[in-house]
Amino acid sequence: MVRITNKTHYRTDDLRRLFDAGLRAHADHTDYRIEVYYSRRSGACSGYAWYHSTRMKLGVPRTPAGAWALSPEERKPFDELPEHIVQDLAHTLIHELCHCLGMRHGEMKVKVAHETWWKGKRIRARATPKKVSAAEKREQNARRTLDQLDRRRDELKAELDRIRKRRVRWAKRVAYYDRKARNRNGGTEA
Ligand SMILES: [Zn+2]
């Protein structure tokens, strides 16, 4: 099974379905490690792989092409990758896979455009958490603060316990020296 480290806002299950299909189509197993990160270029994928390995990195764009020139509203991350970027990602996956299998660029002949395994596969954004009301936020804050204080109190209790135990040990040593000092001074005290 392909192991995915996903550093993007895209759904890992969506990425897995695409990668599994590509690996099943082009490799004899799916035991690959794939890290998914944001591609530096908006609107295009990038990749990196190690020769004769089962390891690669795939860059997926966070925003549409030329996002820097867009209004803040248009600059927002993809809710879902458009089909041409899913195809680009499929292409990049197979390109990097070929490197993993030891191929150099001149030896690569795959054209994913003519293949079907990636078609209809969706790469969607993770669901955004539902809007939390101000009252819910205050309640969550109160619960979280109480939890933090309880944890801090328990830590301090444990620390106090440790200090008490150490103090008992060291007090015994000091008592020993006190007795010795008294004996030296003639043992006048009872
Ligand atoms: Zn390459």
Name the strands of the widest sheet in spatial order: 1-2-4-3
Q: In whole angstroms, how far apart are the ends?
A: 80 Å
Unreliable parts:
none
Could you say which small molecules are bound to this protein?
Answer: zinc ion
The rounded Rg comes to 31 Å
Helix/strand-derived category reads alpha/beta
Written account of the structure:
The structure is a single chain. With 190 residues, this protein is an alpha/beta fold. The chain has a domain at 3-114. The chain is built from three helices and four strands. The protein has helices spanning 12-26, 83-100, 134-184; strands spanning 3-6, 33-38, 46-49, 55-60. It has a four-stranded mixed sheet, with helices on one face. α1 crosses α2. The longest helix is centred in the C-terminal third of the chain and has 51 residues, at 134-184. The radius of gyration is 31 Å and the shape is elongated. Bound molecules: zinc ion. Zinc ion binds at residues 95, 99, 105.
Care to give the gist of this entry?
The protein is 44% helix and 11% strand.
